[in-house]
Amino acid sequence: MQRMPSEIRDLIVENVYPDVPAVKACSLTCRAWLPNARRTLFHSISLDPKSHGHAFRRLLASSPHVTPYIRELEIRVRTAAQLRWDNDTIQGVSWPTLQGLQRIREPESATLMALLQSAFPSNASPLKSVTSLIVAAMPITYAVITILAPHFPNVRTLTVDGCKGLSFTDFIKLLGAFPRVHTLRLVAAQWLHQKSVGFDSILTFPRLRRLEVSRKIDVAPLVTWMLDHSAASDLNSLSCSISSPKHAVAIGLLLHAVGDTLQHLEVGFAETQHPTDILVDARFDLTPCTGLRSLRMLCAEPQLSSYQPSLSWVVILLSKLDPPWLKEIVIVIRSSNLWALNLEALDVILSHARFASLERVVFDIEADTSGEQQGPEDRKQICRRMSELHAKGTLGFDDH
């Protein structure tokens, strides 16, 4: 077995994952198979301190040699306190971002701290190999941050999903606790407009290179903070989903501040009936984005309209774009919504001289909710209605 080529051995281990028992069996094959098996088993760990905190700490204490293999760690807390925070019943407290909240009681908060401390004791060695940290379904407080931050000094990618804090400052402190972060993914977060406690000063905001913001985030305070503290100057990749004029105004300000530094943009509209009206009201356009290399437009996100989608925003945004280095445009769209997109207008716009560097226009066609998909018929329709780009060989397709 030791004479087997290493690339074949590695492919075997990688292809049996996520069959954990099979990967464990591979680790026992011979000494040469062990490192890659460990790398596969321990690369990504999802940890609930309530259920696995002690076991996780015992593993690292008894087998410190596995620590370097842990590259991605998700901490998802499901305590009684968190279940109360997830309750949608509003009891006198109104969130500015999403739904309602019941305040965490002190005994439950203390229990949460104990759970985290059991998994991440202060005397434990930091997990220096962890470069991606996911904080999910847990409150963001000063105590939580002070427990977690020392254990992850080299985090480059931070994901916040389903977390809540008493103030927006709490989230800024969370980001400031990981100064080496260059990719920030905000999936879902809520906060109250209350003064945070336990902080003496504002930490330095990491200089982000990639930002992903979902429609569940009130992006306005984040953008204001980034612009006030010059934290957007290095941003070259942005992914956002716009659901309101306020959201559009904030993203527009960010695009103007970043200017030609931005190279990759993903943008779409969700849960709104009239995206075109939002563009007009917010004066939102892509004219500052002259440095774009790739553009991804999301036309398959949920909208409030039940009778027809409004996709004129795609044509409007592209008509005002002048990108000398743009190489690729990807349009994500449902098969049933192709009729709502003015393909002839797109063909005229994208055939203009200012799009001379454009190499590919890809239609990423998603199946309808019914599961039915017309695949080849969709491609024929697009090629027929976008004859100029089809003749150039620029059109591409990705069917799901």
UniProtKB/TrEMBL annotation:
Q: Which domain of life is it from?
A: Eukaryota
Q: Which InterPro entries match?
A: LRR_dom_sf
Gene3D superfamilies from the xrefs? Ribonuclease Inhibitor (3.80.10.10)
- The entry's protein name is F-box domain-containing protein
Species of origin: Obba rivulosa
